[in-house]
Amino acid sequence: MPDSDNVSLLRLREFLPYRLSVLSNTISTRIAALYDREFGLSIWQWRVMAVVGDRPGISATEIGQLTAMDKVAVSRAIAAMIQMGYLERKTSETDGRRSQLFLTPAGRDVYELIVPIALAEEQKLSGALTEDEQQELERLMGKLADAASPDRELW
Amino acid sequence: MPDSDNVSLLRLREFLPYRLSVLSNTISTRIAALYDREFGLSIWQWRVMAVVGDRPGISATEIGQLTAMDKVAVSRAIAAMIQMGYLERKTSETDGRRSQLFLTPAGRDVYELIVPIALAEEQKLSGALTEDEQQELERLMGKLADAASPDRELW
DNA sequence: GTCAATTAGTTACATATGAAACTAATAGTA
DNA sequence: TACTATTAGTTTCATATGTAACTAATTGAC
Q: Which InterPro entries does the record cross-reference, listed alphabetically (chains A, B) (predicted)?
């Protein structure tokens, strides 16, 4: 049996999970480098900032739900950003386990600088697609996300 | 100035780089769990197996190019798979720095088991899309990959 | 041939990450 | 009230990862 007689053809580079992973990593790496260079923030820290900026008083657990980060990553990002002086934590008055998070004035300054940059970046990326294509991509990604969702027992 | 008076609207969950990252991680995590459970292989090891199976005699550097893995990751995956008895390394006769990699019979057995499973999995995933949608997704991802490619100086 | 520059691949080190154990607070139940 | 179960968040520990330094072989210039 010759080497080329493969069970059935699998070309890694045409393999959807692989392509998605490479594309996502390429984009994430570039964005991470930008945020780090400009603001000294990791992607995780930036995600936390994005949701706290949008929803002041949010808790760590809620941040995790909104950002698809696990609680350890959230905890570490929060700790680092408090250290940096960008975040402030208050203990909830109604539930002593729960923390409520707010941007400090310095944090809000960074937030207001970084949001337009993030949006401009996304624009440069998705600007490679027409409006229709962007919507179609959204739709297709939604279908894939649904199919791959951990709730579904496909595999 | 009210909290909601954001510079401009940024909703993380609608942010393309974020959505891509979450989708890709969801899929990768599930596949990694499957390969690990069934064959004790990491995603990186599986990628190496996929290209060596397809191109016996390939070198580590070439594997890196084909799989978008960095050379350290390739080196480690190869070492582990030699240890497992799935890969064999010969030094190139024309270039003593270069190694040539081959699946052992045991490696080929695993390869022949895993390829159809990988393809079936992809099928379950991309089966959520019609043929036309799959092609469209390919096309859109290609445009994004092009726009995000490290050669381009967008950012 | 000899020596600097390049290339293939590995190793060492420092950091990132995730699972599981842990602490502290709350909720539920008797 | 007291006692157990649950939840929020942190810490610990073991592993994964990337950068940079390294070794070994080859190439190219002289």
A: HTH_MarR-typ, Metal_resp_HTH_trans_reg, Tscrpt_reg_MarR-type_CS, WH-like_DNA-bd_sf, WH_DNA-bd_sf
